[in-house]
Amino acid sequence: MSEQLAPQHPATQGITQLEIDQRVFDLYDEYCHGRIDRREFLSRAASIAALGAAGLVMAQALLPRYALAQTVSFTDQRIKASYVSYSSPGGNSGVMRGYLVQPAGPGPFPAVLVVHENRGLNPYIEDVARRAAVEGFLALAPDGLFPVGGYPGNDDDGRTLQATLDQAKLRIDLLNSARFLKTHKMSTGKLGVTGFCYGGGVVNYLAAALGADMHAGAPYYGVAADTESVANIKAPLLCHLAEHDERINTTYPAFESALKAAGVPYQVHIYSGTQHGFHNNSTPRYNEAAAKLSWERTVAHFRKHLA
């Protein structure tokens, strides 16, 4: 299902999404996924013949500004937030750390795991966890980089660190995070999972790995799960995709066929005019209309299935 959405100005930059050439967006996607480094990203953007120096300006505008993107304060009286550590047998170090945010009040609350991109627990993902808590969910945002010192404070180093991890063990760390959250004393035992980019793929993986122990999933532009594993999925899925995201979108036709064959309830929304990362309000890839609509749908999906 594809929605027509009006192009939106990003919340944090003077340059608008409409002013950025698609070729620069494509280079940024390569950079975000570790196929080129920052120097090459900026250099190649500046060398696009038709753009000249404007290509470099566009590229620099796409780099995140997290301080300007916060929507829920650390000290918001509607929530209580803290960092927690927990065991993770079979993971990269046997121990994990995450950002746990609960609504104010006695609880217990339905639980939502928030899985980061390919760069660790950055401020945007922490803000998403706070947004989930404001909506009434006990939210945990694990830091997959904790076994190597945690999110280092910038995305470039975070991306490099995440690539050095044993990826199978990283998935186990995130699986253990889901189990920790589900059984937390403030949890009702109803578990939803959302995630972005790499984390969106983890949502699909966890749906298969957890089976009936996961009750709802909302992946954002995450790679589809292996079709062989789809029969294990029991959680209804609400999948958010960007229109201009061929790398991810091409994984979905086979995934959807497998979901239908397995009788798994699911919806796929493709947001017109959007780029991979449209929910992240720290760069001009952000599309306000798509981010707002997709989040409203996600919250409604979790309220329905985690009640």
Quick structural gist:
The chain is α/β, with parallel strands linked by helices and about 300 residues long.
- The rounded Rg comes to 19 Å
**Mean pLDDT, rounded to whole units?**
88
Distance between the first and last residues' Cα: 26 Å
Secondary-structure element pattern, one letter each: EHHHEEEHEHHEHEEHHEH
- What spatial form do the alpha-carbon principal axes imply? globular
Contiguous runs where pLDDT drops below 50 for at least 5 residues = 6-16
Helix content: 25-40%
Q: What would CATH call the class of the largest domain?
A: Alpha Beta
Number of domains: 2
Query: What fold name stands as the CATH topology of the largest domain?
Result: Rossmann fold
CATH superfamily of the largest domain: Alpha/Beta hydrolase fold, catalytic domain
Q: How many strands, which pairing sense, and closed or not: the largest β-sheet?
A: 9 strands, mixed
Instruction: Please give the CATH architecture of the largest domain.
Output: 3-Layer(aba) Sandwich
Q: State the helix count.
A: 10
Beta-strand content: 15-25%
Structural class, from helix and strand content? Answer: alpha/beta
Could you give the order of strands across the largest sheet?
A: 1-9-8-7-6-4-5-3-2
Counting DSSP E segments of at least 2 residues, the number of strands comes to 9
Structural topology:
Layout: E1 2-3, H1 22-32, H2 38-46, H3 53-61, E2 79-87, E3 95-103, E4 109-115, H4 123-134, E5 138-142, H5 155-164, H6 167-182, E6 187-196, H7 198-210, E7 216-220, E8 237-244, H8 246-249, H9 252-262, E9 266-275, H10 288-306
Parallel strand pairs: 1-9, 4-5, 4-6, 6-7, 7-8, 8-9
Antiparallel strand pairs: 2-3, 3-5
Helix pairs in contact: 1-2, 2-3, 6-7
